[in-house]
Every structure is written in structure tokens, then in C-alpha cells.
Amino acid sequence: MKSTFFSVAALAAISSAAPTKRADGPSDADILNYALTLEHLEDTFYREALAKYTVDDFMSAGFDNETYSKIQTIASDEKTHVSFLTGALKAAGATPVAECTYDFGYKDVASFLATASILEGVGVSAYLGAAADIMSKTYLTAAGSILTVEARHSSYVRNTIKQEPFAQPFDNPLSINEVYTLAAQFITSCPSSNPALPVKAFPVLTASSSDMMIMTGSKVMLTTKGYKIDGQVYGAFITVTGPMFVNATAVDGGFEVEVPKGIAGQSYVVLTSCNTAATDDTIVAGPAVVEISGTASSS
Ligand SMILES: *[C@@H]1O[C@H](CO)[C@@H](O)[C@H](O)[C@H]1NC(C)=O
Ligand SMILES: *[C@@H]1O[C@H](CO)[C@@H](O)[C@H](O)[C@H]1NC(C)=O
Question: Where is the signal peptide, in residue numbers (predicted)?
């Protein structure tokens, strides 16, 4: 029971750290509840899939019993993250969010693993993006210790489904609202007793391409279903050093952007109202997740 030992030891340290807040940002308790929102989503995702698919289902889909076993370990990690964050919030006197109901949309083992890859990648980007807002060093270390594990889950799942396990030398940070925009697409409803978090979802943006493998120079079609965007917009690919802006050409039913050089792996593109900043004030839709083949060094 190594996870229990870790939880107890870490909780003892964390419970002595009172949640604090930057003048203009979310409080640490808000950030922990935001992290818990994502961990509930992942925990439910794996728990439901493992209740649905057997090791034989994995083998029929072309994966082996080792893959099944690793997915069980990932499921266990996510469950432990949920209990860890729930405990940390309670210890700090805050109300932890409870599990919601979700619709993940997978229909077989292969699409489950494809969704797992996206969720793990978003988890990495979420913890990375939130790091700068965490005030308490204790929470920052705790969040960092979850981030590194999510990154290992991500590279394992990516390798298993023949995506580059680490496509770039840097991961992409996402803001709280960018992550929530992606997470909300899986959430059907949440208990009304859950504390409200300072998050908002941007309009949903969906990416598609006629290229089988999307790479540098590929044209990607971005659509906002049921939502019309007027006026000039730009595409912004999110990177750790800031957005890479590209022209977004209005085409029938959406906007077309070209994948710029130097982006690979699980990538995110938003539509923005200007080509100098991609912030809560300028994002008009997205992010959309775009899987870009190859590695940043080969693109
Ligand atoms: C997978 O199956 C092989 C062959 O039956 C077995 O030797 C191995 O221990 C199994 N691994 C796991 C993780 O169950
Ligand atoms: C983007 O659009 C502007 C204005 O239409 C044009 O001058 C520029 O060449 C375009 N850039 C690219 C990379 O296509």
C-alpha cells in the first residue's frame, strides 16, 4: 500500500499549508478543485472502461495483456490523485468538488485508448499551465509530482497507439479556461452541491483535415458547430514560448489554418480576435486538439 503511505505523508505536509491567493488570480483552493475536476474525469474514464472491457477485448483489438495491466495501473493512479486532492482540500478547510457524469464517446478499445491519449495530454498541459498561479510551494510540489506522472501516462499511451511518445522538447501549457473548454465537452452534468469554480468555457472548436497524417504545412479546418464567428480572426497554436499566429481563412462552414513549422504531437489551436495575444480577452473559440505527426526537430 505505497499509495496510502504517500497520501498520509503528503497530506500531513499539505494540511499545514493554508490556501492563499494572488490578488488577480484563482486561489490555491480553486486550483486544487480545478485539478480535482480533471482527476475525477480521468478516474471515471478509466474505471468505466475497465468495467466495460476485459483483457480479451484488448487482445482482440490488437493490444496485449501488458497494455491492459498498465491501464489498470494508470486507473489506480488517477483514483489515488482523486483521494489525495480531496483530502488536501478537506485538510485546508475547502469543499472538494464531487464526481460529475460524463460522456466520453469512445465505442471500442481503440477509440478508448485514443481518448486516453488526449486526456493524458490535456492533463499535462493543465498542470503545466496552472503551475504559475500556485502560491504555496507545498502545493506546487504536490502538483508537480502529479504532473510528472501524468506525463509518463501520456507517453506510455502515446507509444502504445503508435504516436510519438515525446514529440517536442517542451510541453504546451494551457490556461484554466482553455482546459475547461476541453473538459466541459465530456461533462454531462455535475452535482449542484459542487462549489462554483472561477472557470468559463470558450465556444467549442473542432479540427479536421483531409490529410491522413497532419504535419507542418497541412491545412486544418476549424469549425464552431452551432456558433457563428464574425469578423477577422487568426489561428494561434499554443506553445510554451507563446502563441504562433497563422492566418485563418474563412471557408465554407469554418476557418482554414496551416500548421506552422516546429509544432508536433498533441497540439492546441485557438481562434483569436487579434494576432498579438491569445488570452481570455482575445480567444473567440477553442482550443481544438490537433495531433501533428513527427517530432518538432523533424518537422
Ligand atoms: C501476459 O501474458 C503472458 C503469457 O501468458 C504472461 O507470461 C505474462 O505474465 C502476462 N502479463 C501480465 C501483466 O499479465
Ligand atoms: C496572411 O494574410 C496577410 C493579409 O491577407 C498576408 O499579407 C500574408 O501574406 C498572409 N500570411 C501567410 C503566411 O499566408
Answer: 1-17
Q: Which residue has the cell 475547502?
A: 94
Q: Report the candidate in 41, 48, 90 with the shortest Cα–Cα distance to residue 189.
A: 41
d(CA 270, CA 209) in angstroms, rounded, equals: 16
CB 71 within 8 A of CB 103: no
**pLDDT digits 0-9 by tens, 149-187:** 999 999 999 999 999 999 999 999 999 999 999 999 999
Domain count, the chain: 2
Sheet holding 283-292, edge to edge: 244-247, 234-237, 265-272, 283-292
- Give the Å distance between the CA of 247 and the centre of ligand 2: 6
Domain encompassing residue 83: 2-17+26-189
Does ligand 1 have an atom closer than 6 angstroms to the CB of 65? yes
* Contact yes or no for 181/243 (Cβ under 8 A): no
Q: Which atom of ligand 1 is nearest to the CA of 66?
A: 13
Assign 9 to helix, strand or coil: helix
Residue 143: CATH number of its domain: 1.20.1260.10
Residue 1 pLDDT > 80: no
Q: What is the spatial distance between Cα 173 and Cα 166, in angstroms, rounded to a whole number?
A: 15
In a domain, 198, yes or no: no
Index of the ligand 1 atom closest to the CA of residue 64: 1
Residue 296's pLDDT band (cuts 50, 70, 90): confident
pTM: 0.91
